[in-house]
Design goal:
Layout: H1 7-10, H2 19-25, E1 31-35, H3 38-47, E2 49-50, H4 57-62, E3 68-75, E4 82-92, E5 97-98, E6 106-112, E7 118-119, E8 144-147, H5 149-161, H6 164-173
Parallel strand pairs: 1-3
Antiparallel strand pairs: 1-8, 2-6, 3-4, 4-6, 4-7, 5-6
Helix pairs in contact: 5-6
């Protein structure tokens, strides 16, 4: 089953490490951004899985156990009100899985960290993967991309701090 939202609780863990702690304690080498509406991200968090580009196998096959996936949500719901925030941080764990139904999405199991959404706009100048600060959404248009560790640290710091000015200041200076 892909649904393991309480793995730590089953082992008796009492404190949940911060997103920043997770990224660097695990000595991860790879970090990605996946683009999905906030309601789609909420379903993935509740189900304990990562799904990218509406369940395509290709992007998921590129992931390894321990990779970090930051979700960026341009909207609250598909076609809904704008959000433009990072909304989740998943740590991939488990092989690519696909249900038997022909149209079933591909997924990978993941652990999600408790975070607060972090608006992207205060981070744009500090994020290196965004080369053209005027057309900052261009790198996100394909729905899945690798990002350097420095950008991952900035996004994690903003998610840790709950976004806003405090989160943006921590992300810019981190």
């Amino acid at each position: 089953s892909l649904c393991h939202p309480h793995r730590g609780a089953a082992r008796g863990d009492t404190a949940s490490p911060s997103p920043t702690d997770i990224l660097f304690a695990m000595d991860m080498q790879r970090h990605f951004i996946a683009v999905a509406s906030a309601d789609t991200v909420a379903a993935a968090v509740a189900g304990g899985y990562v799904e990218i580009q509406r369940g395509k196998a290709g992007p998921l096959a590129r992931l390894r156990d321990g990779d970090a996936v930051f979700y960026y949500s341009p909207r609250h719901a598909e076609g809904g009100a704008p959000l433009q925030a990072f909304t989740a941080l998943a740590i991939v764990e488990g092989a690519l899985q696909k249900a038997d139904a022909p149209d079933a999405p591909c997924r990978r199991a993941a652990r999600y960290r408790a975070v607060q959404p972090a608006p992207i706009r205060p981070l744009i100048d500090a994020l290196g993967f965004i080369r053209n600060k005027t057309h900052w959404g261009a790198p996100l248009r394909f729905g899945f991309l690798w990002i350097p560790a420095a950008d991952a640290a900035r996004i994690a710091a903003a998610l840790d701090a709950g976004g806003g000015e405090r989160g943006a200041a921590a992300a810019r200076n981190g």
